UniProtKB/TrEMBL annotation:
This is TLC domain containing 3A. The lineage of its organism: Eukaryota, Metazoa, Chordata, Craniata, Vertebrata. It comes from the Eukaryota.
Length: 69
């Protein structure tokens, strides 16, 4: 459990930093605010997709989602 937490704590800020860096290099005309906003939205979208995927896995693996474990 702690390994997963540590992985997420490194993955999402790393993805944000990578996206911000890549946007600043590929779009030099954009302001820092634009790059940060797009990076934030991209990381949020990745987080939403992963959360949805894990929810689908949980729902499919349990017969009774409320009382199942």
């Amino acid at each position: 459990m702690l390994l997963t937490l540590a992985g997420g704590a490194l993955f999402f800020p790393g993805l944000f930093a990578l996206c911000t860096w890549a946007l600043r290099r590929s779009q030099p005309g954009w302001s820092r605010t634009d790059c940060v906003m797009i990076s934030t939205r991209l990381v949020s979208s990745v987080h939403a997709v992963l959360a949805t995927g894990s929810g689908i896995v949980i729902i499919r693996s349990c017969d009774d989602v409320i009382t199942g474990s």
